[in-house]
From TrEMBL:
Sites where the protein binds substrate: I24, Q25, G26, R39, T83, P209
Pathway participation: Purine metabolism; 7-cyano-7-deazaguanine biosynthesis
Gene3D superfamilies tied to this protein: Aldolase class I
Gene name, Swiss-Prot/TrEMBL: queE
Name of the protein described by the UniProt record: 7-carboxy-7-deazaguanine synthase
Organism: Paucihalobacter ruber
GO terms for MF: 4 iron, 4 sulfur cluster binding; carbon-nitrogen lyase activity; magnesium ion binding; S-adenosyl-L-methionine binding
EC number(s) on file: 4.3.99.3
Amino acid sequence: MKKEIQDLVNQGKMLPLMEAFYTIQGEGFHKGTAAYFIRVGGCDVGCHWCDVKESWNPDIHPPTSADDIVNEAAKYSDTIVITGGEPLTWDMTYLTNKLKEKALKIHIETSGAYPLTGVWDWICLSPKKIKLPQTEIYSKAHELKVIVYNNSDFQFAEEQATQVNGNCILYLQPEWSKREKMMPLIVDYVMKNPKWRISLQTHKYLNIP
């Protein structure tokens, strides 16, 4: 990558854009609502069950002008979801400031593994055991979404729940390939521990992006 482009990427003025699309939010608190998704490439958290592993390597996704990303996003929706990959791999300040200039609501889906940058109306924190969140993001998260792949994830979820703020909404979500096995356990767990809610990947049931 040319130095001048790399400098712009480092400043967040260009980002390795994997894809962007208008769809229905499928998970968590805002499920069922329309939103424009911006999927940024680059992630070294490395969840073995990740369903977008093609997002991991930022080098295969073209550096794209953040201004162009914003202008395109504004055509579709007043709610923008930044996801990845791990979007906080990059400085989100420039992108989110430009989105705010257009009076858009900005959400992020993040593992929290990198320092929080940018201005956010909604932070969905989805922590991963192999690379834990930065301490600062726990107090700012609006929702905590823990992916349940096996039984040990319930304990991990409880450990993470002790660190978020008191208004943070707590979700357990079955990993897609394990949903039939884990869903009965999640249902039972939430009934016994009603501070938790169940999140489903409803977009996959609807067969939409």
